[in-house]
Amino acid sequence: MMLNQAVLLIFAFSVCGIFYTYVGYPVLLRFLAAVRPMQWLREANMPTVSIIIAARNEEKGLRAKLKNTLAIDYPSEKLEIIVASDCSTDGTDEIVNSFEDNGVKLIRPDRRLGKTGVQNLAVENATGEIVLFSDATTHYKSDVLEHMLPSFADDRVGCVAGKLIYEDSSRSSVGKGATNYWNYETFLKQNESLVSSLIGVSGCLYAVRRSAYQPMYPEACSDFLIASVMFRQGLRTVYEPAAICTEETNVRGEEELKMRVRIIAQTLSDIWRNSEMLNPFRFGFFSIELISHKLCRYLVPFFLIVMFAASWLLALTYPVFWIIASIQLVFWAMAIIGLTLMRRSSSMRIFSYPSYFALANLASVIGIYKFLTGETYSYWEPIRNN
After folding, report:
1. For residue 356, which of 155, 220, 175, 186 has the smallest C-alpha distance?
2. pTM
3. What is the pLDDT of residues 49-72, one digit of tens each?
4. For a disulfide at 206, which of 97, 160, 173, 201, Cβ 3.0-4.6 Å?
């Protein structure tokens, strides 16, 4: 009897952990955003802007990216475009130089620095009051600066994140899962911005006060750590959904898994190196966001494993747990089928959601392992669809 009670307690704890992560925390955010939203001042202003595009072997899409950037509706005398090439070995640098007459500048270090390293170098050479970071495959709407810059009229705002919309032209199973996952993430960002501050941004579209930017160590996941860098200075990172960019999703499960593993391992390393940010007595609700949005999310696969094992143990005594355990078994069977179809480039909607959920949680397990074993990601090779 004591053993059954202990297993019941473990089962309940696991269920609560999963429920809080995916339902409880979003509901808490939505409630707080509704009852005490922390709005910020927005006023039209036209500071000088430096757009920094970090690139590593991006010859395939860079020409289109530069044309898209030059089409942004903003006075040319106030706009600087910098491509920071991390020792690219293809035609990236030549493409940038071909746009020199349009005012596009190339910065290339004498050795590989990684994405965060070349961003640091580019900021050192930037002249704009606002620095906007972009990826080489991201396309902006022409009014993107019109929507992002007004938030910098508020002195308490240090960073503004735009809205990333994933496009899934191939209608792949991975693309469906990534798009739905990102819609959920977008909901969290909208409400975290109103309640306190974002804890991270989309690396393909965010702007920072140059005066508040601080160089980050090469292994940092810069688009995650930037929010902590701002918050330490008493500055918020806010979300501007009207500033829109688009990007193609990954279409292969292996690429999506690799990308997510890297991000999780880097994020955990950043949290470890900045663990004081987890103290709510010092950093308030920002710490609660970090714990709930990141740490709890990465612990979900372990909650799932414990819940599954506890269900089968309890089924030996309580018949209702046969149903609970069987439902889980069917779900994971569908996930495995979906992952198999991913590898074969097949797609069936009924399997796409369980399979992407399984992929995301597998990435958490692998990412935690890589973090614990000390694997770092100073250098980066962008994953691009063929």
Report:
1. 175
2. 0.90
3. 999 999 999 999 999 999 999 999
4. 201
